[in-house]
Amino acid sequence: MNKVYDNAAAALHDIRDGATIMLGGFGLCGIPENSISALKEMGVTGLTCISNNAGVDDFGLGLLLQSRQIKKMMSSYVGENAEFERQLLSGELEVDLIPQGTLATRIQMAGMGIPAFFTPAGVGTEIAEGKEVRAFNGKQYLMEAALGADFAIVKAWKGDRFGNLVFRKTTRNFSTSMAKAGTITIAEVEELVEPGQLDPDDIHVAGIYVHRIFQGTQYEKRIERRTVQLTK
């Protein structure tokens, strides 16, 4: 099976209007920049996007929000995007805000084939509306369903032609779980190598989970919020 594609447009060719897409990254760290740009160029609309963050106004998923291609966002933290806020308050955008740990675990469960789990997060709040609550050892827990997607799109540091992926430091964040939870998983990598060039002990996502892979270009790797000051 040939998993290698020439570029993002080729790898994402069958994403249609109304698709549900997971996109890896944390803030702007480790986001699939090439794939987001390709989605914008493709003009697909009505997307449901599952991502911890919603990008910023002019970068990341913020680009798809600007072009009104996203119908619904399922996220944990969205505080850096003014356009997201405007669309939410005006009723243009459906939003499902999910506690960060719950979001991560729902994705992990989908990758493991487990349909649901119980968590104390959200008990007694609006998040619990319509969901089963059960007591374990005298404490209330909320049942949350696993969360999968039609497509999972992640960005890795290195990958080989079999789809094995290596991430750098915190860029693995949600990406390793999302890669296992998509019906079709697409990986863009900074460096595409031949099989055998990756140390098996360094591989974070096995190629069995990855259906398509391509080498990305011109990564900006923008910093969302600088928290340290550089000195000479």
TrEMBL record:
Which InterPro entries does its entry note?
3-oxoacid_CoA-transf_A, CoA_trans_fam_I, CoA_transf_BS, NagB/RpiA_transferase-like
What are the recorded GO MF terms, alphabetically? Answer: transferase activity
Output the NCBIfam families linked to this UniProt entry. Answer: pcaI_scoA_fam (TIGR02429)
Q: Which Gene3D superfamilies match?
A: Glutaconate Coenzyme A-transferase
**Protein name per its UniProtKB record:** CoA transferase subunit A
Task: Recite the UniProt keywords alphabetically.
Answer: Transferase
The record's annotation in Pfam families points to: CoA_trans
- Name the domain of life this protein comes from: Bacteria
